[in-house]
Amino acid sequence: MTALQDRTRTRAAHKAQARLNPYLVIAAGAVVVVALTYMLPPFRTYQLATVGAYLCVTAGLTVLTGLNGQLSLGHGALMATGAYTLALWQNKFNLLLPGILVAIVVTTAVGAVIGLAAARLRGPYLAGLTLAVAVVVPSITSTFDETFNSDQGLSVILNPPPDSMTVEQWQAWVCWGGALLTVLALALLTRGRFGRDMRAVRDDETAARLAGVSVARTQVLAFVVSAACAGLAGALFAVIAQSVSPGAFPLTLSLFLLMAIVIGGLGRLSGALIGAVLLVALPAVAHEIGEAAGSQRLEGNLALTFFGVVLVVVMLAAPGGLASLRIPFKKKGH
Amino acid sequence: MDRFLFLTFDGLSRGAVYAAFALALVLIWRAARIVNFAQGAMAVATAYVAYSVADATGSYWIGFLVAVVAGLLLGAGVERVVMRFVDHSSPLNGVVVALGLVLIIQGVLGMIYGNEFRPAAAPFSRDAFEIGGVALLSRYDLFVFGAVGAVVVLLTLLFTRTPTGLRMRAAAFAPDVSRLLGVPVGGMLTLGWALAAAVGSLAGMLVIPTELGLHPTAMDIVFISAFTAAVLGGLDSPIGAVLGGLIVGLLLSYISGYLGATVAPMAVLALLVVVLLSRPDGLFARSKARTA
Amino acid sequence: MSALLEVEGLTAGYGAAPVLHDVSLTVQPGEIVAVLGANGAGKSTLLRALSGLLPIQKGRISLEDRDLTKIKVEHLVRHGIAHVPEGRGVVTELTVEENLRLGGLWRKPQPSLEPIYELFPRLAERRTNEGHQLSGGERQMLAIGRALAAQPRLLLLDEPSLGLAPKVTAQIMALLRDLRDRTGLAVLLVEQNVRSALSVADQGIVLSLGRIVTRHDAATLVDDAELRHAYLGF
């Protein structure tokens, strides 16, 4: 079977998920996050918020690639779509919750267009198309610079948080609210018929077709769902950063997301969490190394190199991701 | 009309570079069934090396030579050290590994050289000289045509006239049978990667002085254009890659010229979508579905 | 006279379950040995193991006392063994001429293709056609011609009659005999088509479930009704 999408592994993961009640997991997650926001210092709380925002998109991607077998390098661009939508909305109406919904809707629509094309493509062709999306979309900000203000980007008007909490706490609550809802929605979605269809399509398109699964519809739907997740993540990033610019959504962002889901182990929502944590933790570590060495050049680039090495090594050593390395240990315990 | 002529020659010059770069992608696709998404980053890496050497020696041409040789070595190294060990049961694996290489190369370049744009000198004037009162071509354009033309001719001779070329083709089409006939298939694969990377480096050296400047991500958009060209040509066909490159170059030149340069990236994306959806086997490919 | 090919106790196959068990055989110079047996008996596996396409778990292969057990596939042809694989292995994207040149490419200087074209005039006519344009019989001729371009001493031939008209099969068998007589070429011939294989072979080996069950002169196998019934089913 294809190494990226090992059946037995996801089946085992699926069983493990089935034993957990997703509502309970989400409730527990919410309690943990709220507790953390009162325990952590502001900067850590801010990082926690970032993990939440990343989790939205990695969870969506892990469903798309791990369960459905489609590889997208365009989700950084989809995040940009969500972020810019929210920025434009906020600067006009300043209503956050509807704004986030609008960002999701707009990104979903864009994702549907890409997904329609993607459903007809496979392997390197799909990768190439989505790569093109990731490279080209940020440049649109220069094409329509009256709206998007080119490389400078836009600032995002936001109301101050309630008096009882700090900005960081509020950001963490908003981001994790979004993340937990995303995970819940995806968990419910993937255990039902849609999840079965996706796995069937991934494992054998012909067999799936013979079993009456509409391959194209399943693929487009998977893409649309993951695009919605990316839109939410983008909107949340705009909230955290209080600004949007094309520089925040480079091709490398899409590649980082890819790394996150590959390392986390494709097709597992828990893997998406591992990936999201790494996306925040690795650059932070690289930042500290860079500061210690007194080199600005080192900072960002060290993280880049780090991610690249991890991606290559994981793909050569364990194409199922880190989560796949963990499973044998568990089995020994039984 | 003058403007149209100018844009046509400009487009052919750009297109020649895309053609060379697309040719590099096709070479590896034919040899290994991998689209080398790291091709752009690899070309940038060798260009950095080349300009360092050119600065140190004071000679652009030594730098140019170094770029091509560095491309050969980098290509061979990537195949021997990394790509050879990729599990090819899913086409995604090779793609993901290549993208990992992109991150590594861009990160390392940034650490060594920084992330600022560096000016990259061209060996010839880029001012177009006038023919019959119309500014058409620069010396640099002629250099580009000459270099890409030489690459195409040399590759054609290599593949059609030499035993090594025959071995490379056979190894790509039928590895097991070729082995039985005494062809060192692994070596041919390494050679294919080395040649492709060298051609990619050459294309990078040609395009970086024109508009991009030297930057770790400078080739990203060139990669997209060349990928579009290669897909347009059918991904399996070297001739298709060259024609595809010229077509993409012309289209982008007209679009930049008449609609503005900032529209060009979107035009590439639109073209790629149209090609993938309407001519999934490319304009010139013989057959095979787009599912590999 | 020492044997050309000597195989002792060969066990080979995929992973834990070997397909071949303890196979020993010899081929003398200028001898045509037919390997017979039902589908799945391990006939093609034997050839694939001999040429290194399949990992060998136990045993020894030698050619004129030179140990070839651990040889790399691509070096095989240098020792005088040419393998025409199942399905012929014509490189369909290359022309007839290129396929033939490929066969002799490892030799320096490269041999002339004229003797091959004399042997197969049909191939000379189709010189510039690509492999996919050829008929099944032409492909078989091309595959054999390409193997001969390497000027081997031993030809491993896998199911040459597969999908060919009886007349074409007969031509190919006659050609093998002719080559043997003129050049001393030894052939290890895997065949499903027992009658045509035994019509040219000197020796017949019968494989069953990966083991050699009997080995006799071809004439004996054909004439002895009991043997025929027991091992060949006709």
Properties at a glance:
heterotrimer, A: 334 residues, mainly alpha, 16 helices, 2 strands, 78% helix, 1% strand, disordered N terminus, disordered C terminus, B: 292 residues, two-stranded antiparallel ribbon, 11 helices, 74% helix, globular
Rg over C-alpha atoms of chain B, rounded to the nearest angstrom: 19 Å
CATH class of chain C: Alpha Beta
Give a quick account of the main beta sheet of chain C: strands, pairing sense, barrel closure.
6 strands, mixed
Q: For the largest beta sheet of chain C, what order do the strands appear in spatially? A: 6-7-8-3-9-10
Summed up, the domain count of chain C is 1
Number of strands of chain C: 10
Q: Which word captures the global form of chain C?
A: globular
Q: Indicate the proportion of strand residues of chain B.
A: under 5%
Query: Which protein chains are joined by the largest interface, and how many residues does each one contribute?
Result: A-B, 54 and 54 residues
Main sheet characteristics of chain B: 2 strands, antiparallel
Distance between the termini of chain B: 44 Å
Family (chain B): Belongs to the binding-protein-dependent transport system permease family. LivHM subfamily.
Protein name (chain B): Branched-chain amino acid ABC transporter permease
Subcellular location (chain B): Cell membrane
InterPro entries (chain B): ABC_transp_permease, BCAA_transport_permease
Give a quick summary of the entry.
The complex is a heterotrimer of chains A (334), B (292) and C (234). Chain B is built from eleven helices and two strands.
